[in-house]
Design goal:
GO terms for molecular function: oxidoreductase activity, acting on CH-OH group of donors. Keywords: Oxidoreductase, Signal. By secondary structure, the chain is α/β, with parallel strands linked by helices. The protein is built from eleven helices and seven strands. It has a seven-stranded parallel sheet, with helices on both faces. β4, α7 and β5 form a beta-alpha-beta unit. α4 crosses α11. The chain starts with a helix and ends in a 7-residue tail after the last strand. The protein binds nicotinamide-adenine-dinucleotide (NAD) and magnesium ion. The site of magnesium ion has 7 residues, from loops.
Length: 334
């Protein structure tokens, strides 16, 4: 604990009982209260027009896709996310940290003061490099660990490497996912089905099992589930059931790990503008109208979920476990 924080807590412990809130606030230096400007009113932002609305340009990329090649480019908070020290000193591992929700979480975590290891596929090196640069620009340690999560031995090595290079592990964000749209179950090959299950269900099992012995009370596990867990689309038969499984393991492991002081929560995005969608996750036609049926009338952007990943990781969320937080554009899930 830095000296000034020590001094504050001593002062609060010694004199806090008799002090009013205003006096306690005045006793804390600006750094302890966050440096956010609360004097200048921020203009209201209309969520329906805050980001590009459909129709989006027709586009497709080979799987797994790159954020850098999308049009328009997704907003992961590169220019907008401001931290206030909510995760100072934490050590986090984020799978799928190169793009989409994982990148938004990585940027936010670094700007909140965490060191961050990211996993991604070797084909995503270009996206991952940008994230590494952003984490380092925030003054934090970045640990890039490429590799395929369908391999159980790699999952275990990933956790070991992250723990070794970060010097511990307080936050695991199991976010990587595979989604490939198939109009009919008859078009889902055995290999497809296997790859979706291995990526979305088996990998979190291997990762959490390897991470748990390294996690102390106060640590947090966060899994990315989906609105698909609750309201599956007909063309996402295999994917949607993996997201229901994710939602379910969040609840069982929260019960199992609660007594250990380790929280487990889920994030359920609605339609979000990420490479997953333009590399086979949605049909080409659906990409053009992506998010159009949401009451907000557009796709969401990864940065619109950054604060949720922070909230579920930080100490302020200490009573939140076994819960799933959504950002669904009004479609009602979870
Ligand atoms: P994304 O393409 O940016 O991220 C998915 C990541 O998964 C990729 O970057 C890749 O690094 C990783 N990945 C996939 N297969 C892998 C493998 N075998 N080994 C290692 N890494 C692998 O897209 P996103 O939409 O940000 O996806 C993140 C999570 O959000 C996924 O779990 C997805 O199911 C979920 N989700 C997305 C949406 C959406 O509309 N985009 C909605 C609900 C849930
Ligand atoms: Mg990616």
């Amino acid at each position: 604990m830095p000296d000034n924080e020590n001094a504050i807590s001593r002062r609060l412990m010694v004199g806090g009982a008799g002090l009013g809130l205003a006096a306690i606030a005045a006793a804390a230096p600006a750094s302890a209260q966050g440096s956010t400007d609360t004097a200048t009113p921020k203009p209201l932002q209309d969520p329906t027009t805050k980001y590009p609305r459909p129709p989006y340009p027709r586009q497709t990329q080979p799987w797994p896709g790159l954020a850098g090649k999308m049009d328009p480019k997704p907003d992961h908070g590169e220019l907008s996310y401001k931290g206030t020290g909510r995760l100072t000193g934490r050590k986090a591992l984020i799978t799928g940290g190169d793009s989409g929700m994982g990148r938004a979480a990585a940027i936010a975590y670094a700007r909140e003061g965490a060191d961050v290891a990211i996993n991604y596929l070797p084909a995503e090196e270009a996206d991952a490099r940008e994230v590494v640069d952003l984490i380092r620009a925030a003054g934090r340690k970045a640990v890039p660990i490429p590799g395929d999560l369908r391999d159980p031995a790699f999952c275990r090595r990933l956790v070991d490497d992250a723990v070794r290079q970060l010097g511990g592990l307080d936050i695991l964000v199991s976010n990587a996912g595979r989604q490939q749209s198939r109009a009919s179950i008859l078009e889902v090959s055995d290999e497809d089905f296997d790859a979706t299950m291995k990526t979305n269900i088996y990998a979190p099992f291997y990762l959490i099992k390897a991470a748990l012995p390294n996690m102390k009370p106060g640590s947090a596990i966060i899994a990315t589930t989906s609105e698909q867990a609750y309201d599956p689309s007909p063309d996402l038969y295999d994917y949607a059931q993996t997201k229901a499984a994710t939602m379910n393991f969040v609840k069982s492991l929260a019960k199992q790990f609660g007594p250990k002081g380790i929280r487990v929560n889920g994030v359920a995005p609605g339609p979000i503008w990420t490479p997953l969608q333009v590399s086979g996750g949605a049909s080409e036609g659906k990409v053009v109208t992506f998010g159009a049926t949401a009451p907000l009338g557009r796709a969401g952007q990864p940065v619109e979920l950054a604060g949720i990943y922070v909230r579920l990781a930080e100490d302020d969320g200490s009573y939140t476990t076994g819960n799933v937080y959504g950002a669904g554009g009004g479609q009602g899930q979870p």
